[in-house]
Structure formats: C-alpha cells, structure tokens
Amino acid sequence: xTPAVNLTVRVKPGSRKGPLVVTEDSDDASLTVFLQQRAVDxxxxxxxxxxxxxxFGVARSAVRIIRGHTSRVKHxxxxx
Length: 80
Description:
By secondary structure, the protein is α+β, with helices and mostly antiparallel strands. The protein has a single domain (5-78), classed as Conserved Hypothetical Protein Mth637, Chain: A, CATH 3.30.1200.10. The chain is 18% helix and 35% strand. It is built from 1 helix and 5 strands, in the order βββαββ. The chain has a 5-stranded mixed sheet, with helices on one face. The longest helix is centred in the middle third of the chain and has 14 residues, at 43-56. The N and C termini lie close together (7 Å).
C-alpha cells in the first residue's frame, strides 16, 4: 500500500486554459491547476477534486482538500 501524498495546489479558477494540471519546478510537491469553473458555490473545489482524481488515477473519494477551501492556494491529500 502506497502512503498518502500531500500537495500544495495553486488553483486558477475561470481560466480558458483549463482543465489543466501543471507541475511546478520546485523542490516541494506543488501543482498549478487551471479550471474553467468559477469559484462560486464550491464549483471550483468540486472540479479540482474531479480533475486531480483523474490525473492521479484514483477515486474522487481519495482526494481531499485539507486546507484552503476559500483560498486559491490549497493543501490537498491524495490517498491511494
């Protein structure tokens, strides 16, 4: 069993590039995610969970936003 992964995710809601996941060129585990959905009524958070689950090949229930529900910088935990 693989341990869980904690990521720092910078979300860009309302982007024309989306949906797109870009890996940052840094030492820590961080991603930039471009989403077409706007940050209204949790639509961007739902889209983020769906996109990360598809990107990492896990179920949506395995992706959880730990911190930053109302921020563009979020801390996400991915269980496998």
